[in-house]
Amino acid sequence: RAELDGLLRDYAGRPSPLTECHRMGEELGIRLLLKREDLNHTGSHKINNVLGQALLTKRMGKTRLLAETGAGQHGVATATAAALFGFDCVVYMGEVDMERQKLNVFRMRLLGAEVRPAMSGSRTLKDAVNEAMRDWVATVERSHYCLGSVMGPHPYPWMVRELHRVLGDEAREQSRALLGGADPDFVVACVGGGSNAAGIFAGFADTTAELVGVEPAGGAAVGRGVPGVVHGMTSFLMQDEWGQIEEAESISAGLDYPGVGPEHAHLADIGRAIYPSVTDDEVVEAFQVLSRTEGIIPALESAHAVAWVIREAAALAGRTVVVNLSGRGDKDVAQMMDRLGGDLS
Which of 154, 270, 271, 299 is most buried, by the most CB atoms less than 10 A from its CB? Predict the structure, then answer.
């Protein structure tokens, strides 16, 4: 634990700050605080989990890291840890995602990782997980699968949550320092598989803060899904009447997943958290609004959480809202330029 804490501090740059958004908060009529995971080394929350699993790989005497990635942030973080520890690294990424996240593909290769396209199915995150698991079971003697979210077989959902708990514990301490010992009214995070949300929710689960996990409208596993089994877990899944997994669709590659981590299914089932969805158009608007009002370009994944806050601003009036800004949007600028046609007027 001491070794991991040292890496998080000296290599990843923790603790990440809690930034108050004065201009945007004033416009929305709320007090808005951002947990700045975008400022971590590699640009997202993913480094928290990867450093812990890399240490585990070292302790197990294995020499090869495997990962899946959607937006590329987990792949970049895994490639970074592999370079740090001297491991071989193979990252599986859907062919569709490789096209829309070319920058992160280059970053992974620059860091020494081999990036293999997942060519089956929808050629997105779900299929990358399939390929990584196939590789893992065939090479388990020397490979560790560094799963990037709170999904898959036990102990991954628990382990990934615990490795991300640091951001929730920090956010709780930081928000109480800003709020005179009080907790925020709402804690909001985007949800695909759900790793960043699980991390920040862990810090506030025993408080009165309302927990909000924001899904993409085209991948709302909690909102539209039914119980099912995929990738070694039972959770809410988007599937048809025959139990076949349906394709998710999202502007953000990192949320393009037809399921959700089982802990999120549990939190929804007991009513501790709610899981609304936002559309791609709302996400694009939020991406631009945060950039222009606060000078912070969010990842498209993180912009889902911001989009919900903007949409629900009237209902949130006068309240304090913590948003987990899980990553920065450098990787998405080219995609946004294409979508907006270069028109930012």
Answer: 299
Which CATH number is 46-145 given?
Answer: 3.40.50.1100
Which mean pLDDT values do the consecutive 10-residue runs of the chain (345 residues) have?
96 99 99 99 98 99 97 95 99 94 95 96 89 97 98 97 99 98 99 98 98 98 94 94 89 91 98 98 98 98 99 99 98 92 68
What distance in Å separates the CA atoms of residue 299 and residue 59, rounded to the nearest whole number?
33
45 an active-site residue? yes
Catalytic residue status for 21 = yes
Bridge partners (DSSP) of residue 212 are 188, 274
Name the catalytic one among 45, 74, 264, 304.
45
Taking the C-alpha atoms of residue 69 and residue 113, their distance in angstroms, rounded to an integer, is 12
Per-domain boundaries in the chain: 2-44+166-340, 46-145
Ordered alpha helix ranges (H), the chain: 2-10, 22-28, 46-59, 73-85, 95-100, 102-110, 125-138, 156-178, 195-204, 221-224, 262-269, 280-294, 300-311, 333-340
Contact 240, 246 (CB under 8 A): yes
0.85 exceeded by pTM: yes
CA distances from 114 to 50, 79, 146, 197 (A): 17, 9, 15, 29
